[in-house]
Amino acid sequence: MSSVQLLRGTMLISQEKLTNFTTKIFTAAGSTEAVATEVAEHLVTANLKGHDSHGVGMIPTYVRNIKVGNLQPDAHAEVIRDNGAVLLIDGKMGFGQVVGHEATDIALERVKDTGIVAVGVRNCHHLGRIGSYGEQCGLAGFVSVHFVNVVGHAPQVSPYGGRERRMTTNPFCCVVPREGEMPIVLDMATSAIALGKVRVAHMKGELVPDGVLVDHEGLPTNDPSVMYEEPLGAMGPFGKHKGYGLAVMCELLGGALAGEWTAQPGNARENTVVNHMLMFVLDPNAFGGVERFNSEVTDMVNYLRSTTPAKNFDRVRIPGEPEQESMAQRCVNGIPIDDNSWAGIVTAAQTAGLSSDDIAGLTAD
Ligand code: NAD
Fold this sequence. Notes:
The chain is α+β, with helices and mostly antiparallel strands. It contains eleven helices and 13 strands. Nicotinamide-adenine-dinucleotide binds next to strand 8 and helix 9.
C-alpha cells in the first residue's frame, strides 16, 4: 500500500510511518529515543488493535501535558517499597507506557521466585491500553489481573442510581496465557461507552446508543450534548450495578491502595491524566500441573467457540480476538485516521518542535 492516502475524510497510514512520525514527535518534545519509541509503539499498537481512542489520537494531550509540566518525558519506574511478593512502584509522572512496561518487567522477574506478586504502580501519566501489560504477562506464560483508576481531571461517570459524576472510565483487565497461541485478554473500560465515542457523536449531531448516558436528573438519554453542555449529565457504568461495582473496586484497589489517590474532590484535578494500577501476576506452575491448566483452557475455549452463533452474529469469539482481527487487517491495509485527529497530531508535532518541513518529510509517500 501507499503509506498515506486520503479516503473520504480519513487517511490510511502505514504502521511503520506512523510509528516513526510519533517517535520523532516525542523526541522533539524531550524524550530519549528509547522512551519515544516505546510510547510510539504502544500507541500505534492500540490503533492496530482497533482502539483508536487509546492510539495516536492521544498525542496532542501528551504533548500539552509535557509542555505544562504534568508529564515528565523521561521519567522511569522506581521501586519505592519491596516486600518480596508485594512491590510498590512510583511512575514519577512519566509516560505510563514506559513505567507500566518497566513495572511489568519487574513483576515478571519477581513472580518466578514467589509464584504470585502484587504490584502497586502509582503516579503514571496515562497508561494507555491496559491490555498491553496483560499481554506482556500472558506472552511470558503468566496470568495477570489489573485494577486501574483514572484521576487528575474532573470525573465523567456517575455511580449506578446517581446523577452526578463521581469516577472516570476505570479500566479492568484480566489475561490468561495459552500454549503456543495469543493469550485470552479481557481489557475494558468500566464505563458503558468511551468518552471519545460520545465526542464523535456530538460533533456529528448523532445520538449515542441506549443505556450509556444519563441526563442531569439521572434519567437515560441518547443525547451526547449532556457531556458538554449545561445542565450536565454523565456517562453511566456498563452493566448497571455490576459494572458500577467493578468500577468502585478499580477506584479503591488501583486508586486508594496502590495510588493513594482516588477521584474524591480532596485530591488534585489539574486537567491532566494520571493512572494508578494494582496488578496481580500469578504463575500457573505454582498451582500444580501447568499441563492440565493448559489443556483445560484449550478445551474450554474450543467448547465456547463451538456455540451456534446467535441470529445476526457470525461466530462466538473469546476476549482478545476482536483486537487480533483488527490487527491482522490494519497491518495489511493501514491505520485509518480521520482528518480532525490528523490535524490535531500535526499541530502537536509543531508544538513539540518539529518544523513544517520535518513533518512533510516524515509523512510524505
Ligand atoms: P471494548 O469494549 O472494545 O472491548 C472490551 C473487551 O471485550 C476486550 O477484551 C475485547 O477483546 C472483548 N470483546 C469485544 N467484543 C467481543 C466479542 N464479540 N466477543 C468476545 N469478546 C469481545 O473495549 P473498551 O472498554 O472500549 O476499552 C478500550 C481500551 O481502552 C482498553 O484497552 C482499555 O484498557 C483502555 N482504557 C484505558 C484507560 C486508561 O485510563 N488508561 C481508561 C479506559 C479504557
